[in-house]
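subagent[fold] <- orchestrator: predict structure for attached chain, return tokens only, no commentary.
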Amino acid sequence: MLEKSHIDPFVDRNFAETVRLFESSSSKLSKQVTISLTYPDASDMQNTPEILGQEDERSFRIFRLNEASRVPKWELVTGQQQVDIVQNIVSAKVNTFGVFRVARLKLPENLEKVVVYPNPFIPSQSINGYITFRNLTENVTIRIYSLDGREVKSIEKIGEGDRATWNGLNNNNEEVASGTYVYVIQNESQKQIGKIVIMR
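subagent[fold] -> orchestrator:
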């Protein structure tokens, strides 16, 4: 059974024919290449709980099969993706080949279930060296403030998946000091506020 991260299950069977294998003699490409996949027109999609139109096609994305995961799963290809709703083509830049497909991206609709980890953040003990903000909506801005109200870092997440990261550096690429910081996550209609503790 494949795990389908951030794929809308209600329309997914309409994308079964979009699965494609891209192969290369080497597992890692020397530079990014653009892949393009066609998808069925939204007006032709059958047995969906809602009627889809061209505007819905803007949420179609390319996903890559991660076979190295403990449970193989479809993962959203990171970076900006282009959707041509006239030609019914989605394009994305990739640096590895493999199995790809098109699906409708389904992200959280609000910021109520945002999770921030690790918290406290101890850089010397961190496995990957950054703080993760998860369960984000599609387009958000994250601002980190010191307790005296100065903005320390601003992060914009446009498109992509449900997460963003912060490496503990300020807007000038300098390490922030140990202490408590306030984060403000904002999309077009909502705001979520919380605290992060950094221990160096």
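orchestrator: received. Logging for downstream: The mean pLDDT is 89. Residues 134 and 193 are 14 Å apart (CA to CA).
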